[in-house]
Structures are given as structure tokens and as C-alpha cells.
Amino acid sequence: MRPSPVSPAPRFPEPSRIRHGRALSVVLGLALAGATAPAQAATTETPEPAADAPAATATEALARDLGLDPTTAEQLLEAQEEALAVQESAASAAGQAYVDALFDTETLSLTVLVSDPAAVAAVEATGANTRVVDEDPAATMAALEKVPVPEGVTGWYPDTERGLVVVEALAPAAADALLEEAGTDSDAVRVVEVDHAPTPYSELIGGHPFRVGSAQCVIGFSAVTSGGQGGFITAGHCGRVGATALDSEGAALGVFQRSQFPGWDGAFVRVGPEWTLTPWIELWSSGGYHSVTGSQEAPIGSAVCASAPVNGWRCGTIEARGQTVSYPAGTVTGLTRTTLCAEPGESGAPVVAGSQAQGVISGGSGNCATGGTTFFQRLNPMLTSWGLTLVTG
């Protein structure tokens, strides 16, 4: 049965309503698609929202944050759904030659990177464009992962399109120290100086929020263990194994059964049988729900969105996968880098591409007033490693 509508106000779930089936309807926070099918997201008559206005639909959020008109935003959603299907076929056709995939939100085209020219014909037969890449940044990434991270280095990620590793640092000297320690050729790296170091988002109220001690985090995606126990996925730095997640009244919400930080930044919080798990996505600005139907990973360049009451729906694009981030509390590898904006209190918030779940927010730099970079922990590795099944509609 579909959950009842909720108030769009940014607040905690009312305790009287938590145990009547709606509390975990908030588990899925946000999606790009306006409903199960992208074509239902919005009509072409939908006005463009003001720059700072809350977005009532995914189409409005895309139009606002990517500078699109509503019609173009709908076309982007439809093209991206089609590209996901083509990407799966193209990766299979490329076999061992598959390197990565890129989606262009302007041309709405998918390009598959391959390491062997002999794979081009098979990949293009699936409908994707191809590009042969000569350099693989995997070896450089591996070398950097083996050494201590110098102070001032904030992270690094593979630029598969150019065959380089991008190292970010507060000062070039810090990046130089990292490369020297790893014995890495400077020609294989591009150093980018950044103004701010990323921090985990766990300090302010997100939505729907929970607390571990004084730290505030966000429920991510509902999932079920192989033994049939229900719970939700969130950020690992929100709590250690055995920690209790509390609701707004201080009542027990669940217990951290799995948690990893640093290394990864993911966790699974087990809840009791009184909780109802749903695949629905809450629309904070207008009320109502949408559905997550799977967790197929979107290619680099795809549009993704995240949601919490602090900032409503916010959208951006995937810049890279495999980012390593050096937080003050430890280094996390394998994150996905995006142009999403997020702020403290949004750790664990769900990130979605269309109807496909992508991951949960880990941290970042910047804010939603000036823009920034946000990293999310990929969902599928957590599902696989921990034997979890995503709740889908």
C-alpha cells in the first residue's frame, strides 16, 4: 500500500507516525525521475523555478541546477535512461577492453572508452560512440594508495578520459610530497590546487534525519539482509558497529550492524520488525512519492540528484569514479565525485540517477550558496559485500 502523504516541512518524523508504516518511506530521499517512468516527471508547461526556490520535481531541480528549460530537462532524463541500457550492452560487447563510459548532458550521447581498437566495431553496434584510450590511470592510482597521505593533500581521482590521475591539494608542495613518496611520474598526474578540504557531512539536521550522540545524519536507502532483517544504508562515519541511531525524541531507531570508515564510508543500520520498508522517494517541497527501481550505476557525465530538507533537491553531474579523499579522520577510497552541492547534516543522503539508486553522500567541499564538490559512496559494493538486497518498486 502506498504511504500516506507527508508534510513538506523540514522536520523529524512525528513519533506517533513512525510506527505506522511511513517512517522508512523517507529512506529514499530523492530521484531524478518524476515517477517510475521518466516521461511522467513533468510537463512542458512547468515553469522554471527561481534560482533559490525549492524544487517540487526532479525536472525543476535539473532545470534550476543545470541551467536547462523544462523541456530539455525531460529530454535529458529520457536520454539518460536509454543510455543506461546501451551502456550495459556496450560493456558486455567490449569485454576486457572496456575502460569506462561517458555521458554528455549537452549532446545526450554516450561514449564508451576501450583499450583495444578491435573492440570498437562491437561496441558501436550497440549504439554507443567509442574512443580508444592509450593510458590507464589504474597503476598510478594503486601507487598513490600505498603511501601515507601528506598533510595538505585532500584527495585524488582517475581521469579515465585523459589517462591521468588528478591530485587535489591545498598547496602544490603537498602534492609534490605525495608523488615523491609514491615514486609517481609527474607526467601521469595533474595537480589541482583547491581552497577547501572536504569534511564529512554529519553535523547538522538533514532529512529525514537521525542522530548518533550529537551527530546528525540522513537515512539513505532501505535494504534487507539475506536473513530477512530490514534496515537502511547510510554513511559509515555516522556511527560504528553497535552504535544506536536515535530519532528526534531520543528513541532507538536502529543499531549499526555494518559500518566502515575510513577505507569506505558506508553503513547498514538494522531496524526492528515494526518498521515498514518501502522503495518510495519523498518530495520535500510538494509531498508525494516516487519509486526507486534498481541500482544500475550511471556513466560518468550523467546527471544525479540528492535531497534533504536543508536544501531540498539538488542536482549535478558525475565527474569521476574511484576518487580517493583524505578526510581529517582518515582516507576513503572508491568514492564517486560529483558537482552536487551538499552541506553538513547531509551525510548518508541518497543519490539517484533517474530511478536508479547510486549511493549515499560521504562529504565534500563548498556549499549550496557558492557551489562545491560532493562525494558519494557507491551503493552496489555495499549491497554485494554485505549480502543486502535493495528494496525497489
UniProtKB/TrEMBL annotation:
Lineage summary: Bacteria, Bacillati, Actinomycetota, Actinomycetes, Streptosporangiales
Record's signal peptide: 1-41
Family assignment from sequence similarity: Belongs to the peptidase S1 family.
Active-site residues annotated for this sequence: 237 (charge relay system), 265 (charge relay system), 347 (charge relay system)
GO molecular function, one term: serine-type endopeptidase activity
Enzyme class, first EC level, given as a word: hydrolase
A cellular component term, taken from the record's GO annotations: extracellular region
Gene3D superfamilies in the record: 3.30.300.50, Trypsin-like serine proteases
Enzyme Commission identifier(s): 3.4.21.-
Domain Peptidase S1 as annotated: residue spans: 205-381
Record's protein name: Streptogrisin C
Disulfide bonds listed in the record: 217-238, 305-315, 341-368
UniProt superkingdom: Bacteria
Pfam families: Pro_Al_protease, Trypsin
UniProt keyword annotations, A-Z: Disulfide bond, Hydrolase, Protease, Serine protease, Signal, Zymogen
Domain Peptidase S1A alpha-lytic prodomain positions: 140-185
Source organism (scientific name): Nocardiopsis metallicus
GO biological process: proteolysis
